[in-house]
Amino acid sequence: MSNVKEIIQSLLKNETQALKQEKIHTYLVATEEKQNFAIPIDFLVEVFEINESSPLIPVPLVDEYIRGIVNVRGEIIPAISLNSILGLASDHTKIRYIIIIQKDFKLGLTFHHVSDLYQIEESKLKPIYHLKEHQHHDIIAAEFDLENSVAQVLNVEGLYESSAVR
User: Fold this and answer.
1) What is the pLDDT at residue 132?
2) Taking the CB of the first residue and of the last residue of the chain, which one, N or C, has fewer CB atoms within 10 A?
3) Superfamily of domain 23-158
4) For the chain, which residues score pLDDT lower than 70?
5) What was the pLDDT predicted at 152?
6) What is the domain partition of the chain in residue ranges?
7) What's the pLDDT score for residue 45?
């Protein structure tokens, strides 16, 4: 009988330890101007480099945050600037990469630099307070510390539901 009790206690202990383990999120961090954005890899399709044979084609008479369209293996994908949506400085002449994400449809996000993949524990994610008054505050879910800066976590669902994309 004591053997069964020990087994049950061991199982309960293992379950408690499993509950204590924190969820870890993986993000691809990219930079536009001096702003770091963390894109959840669950929505990541690919990273596309802009070059002469695969240019970003401007589209006339559209909002400033729409940087253009890009042809990726025969598929036309719109490309937008998160900095422009958030009202931050953005130099479109420095765009070198488009990170393609997909939820309802494929969408390109323009960046100057792509850093690395980061695995972040849920407890390291901090709420965003300084964007609460901004019209598109719902596209940034949280932020976390990098080596010498901060990365803002993209809320992909919020982006797709925002007026900037719809």
Assistant:
1) 60
2) N
3) CheA-289, Domain 4 (2.40.50.180)
4) 1-5, 8, 11-20, 130-137
5) 94
6) 23-158
7) 96
Q: How many angstroms separate the CA atoms of 127 and 111, rounded?
A: 23
**Cα angle value 55/58/82 (rounded, 5°):** 90
- Encode pLDDT of 46-81 as tens digits: 999 999 889 999 999 999 999 999 999 999 999 999
* Burial class for 144, CB neighbours closer than 10 Å (0-12, 13-18, 19+): buried
- Give Cα 97 distance to the centre of its chain: 14
For 67, the token pair is 């940087």
Q: Are strands 106-111 and 75-80 parallel, antiparallel or unpaired?
A: parallel
- Whether residue 137 contacts residue 87, with contact meaning beta carbons closer than 8 Å, is answered with no
Q: What are the start-end ranges of the E strands in 41-154?
A: 44-49, 66-72, 75-80, 97-102, 106-111, 113-121, 140-145, 150-154
**Two structure tokens written together for 140:** 């940034």
Helices (H), 21-163: 82-85, 156-161
Residue with tokens 């609460």: 132
Q: Would you state the structure tokens that stand for residue 37, as one six-digit string?
A: 């954005």
Distance between CA atoms of residues 163 and 107, nearest Å = 14
